[in-house]
Amino acid sequence: TQLLEQSPQFLSIQEGENLTVYCNSSSVFSSLQWYRQEPGEGPVLLVTVVTGGEVKKLKRLTFQFGDARKDSSLHITAAQPGDTGLYLCAGATVSSGSARQLTFGSGTQLTVLP
Amino acid sequence: DTGVSQDPRHKITKRGQNVTFRCDPISEHNRLYWYRQTLGQGPEFLTYFQNEAQLEKSRLLSDRFSAERPKGSFSTLEIQRTEQGDSAMYLCASSQSGRGYEQYFGPGTRLTVT
User: Using alpha carbons only, how large is chain B's radius of gyration in Å?
Assistant: First the structure.
């Protein structure tokens, strides 16, 4: 069983602060996705990283894939209340023609206070 | 096309009743996935279709669950003889062939079994 562990589980910060959330596994993933989910809605895809060491930026969000493709981090600069939500990482694997089912972490619930 | 749609958004049923959910994927996506999400957890994979063929099923998908995608377009997920433990958010996602790791989710169907 492949598991993704996310930390911290909960994070509450003031507007304007920086933060980093982590996603770790003992397994190697062919790609890793970050999603954001709001209450009562489905996850929204933010980014996909596929190459070890890859860094992608999306406005104030910076995503990094570990060199060994076992871990990832999400850094938010100058957080805003609109960044509030559940951040989920999801790893994709391929085995025996599997359709790359995603394995999700349990998420980091971020609250940005005005 | 505006994304993956799911119907209904909410369903309340009594234990022992059957329920059916519908998912309409992004039109050019030939892969369709079902996930289940319980409170405080990330989504868990249930099953996957490529066109009309159901190619993979999780152990979570008991024999009370059945999914179909008869024409390779929309899909239905039926739960027979519902139990309180079936209460969850049921999420549908779709992806393009060759980019199965980039899955786009619908808003989900919230099932409550009383």
Answer: 13
Tell me which chain B residues have a C-beta less than 8 angstroms from the C-beta of A7. none
Q: Cβ of A41 under 8 Å from any chain B Cβ?
A: yes
| Mean pLDDT (chain A, rounded) | 92
**Nearest C-alpha in A relative to B49:** A99
Q: Does A38 touch chain B (CB under 8 A)?
A: no
Q: How many whole angstroms separate alpha carbon B58 and alpha carbon B45?
A: 7
Question: For residue B86, which phi and psi values (nearest 5 degrees)?
Answer: -80, -10
**Tokens 């008991």 map to which residue?**
B62
Q: How far apart are CA A11 and CA A110, in angstroms?
A: 5
**Residue A91 C-alpha from the chain's centroid:** 10
pLDDT tens figures, A19-68: 999 999 988 888 899 999 999 999 999 999 999 999 999 999 999 999 99
Distances in Å between the Cα of B72 and the Cα atoms of A32, B24, B69, B79 are 27, 10, 5, 20
Q: B52 to chain A, minimum CA–CA distance in Å? A: 14
Residue A113, beta-bridge partner list: A14
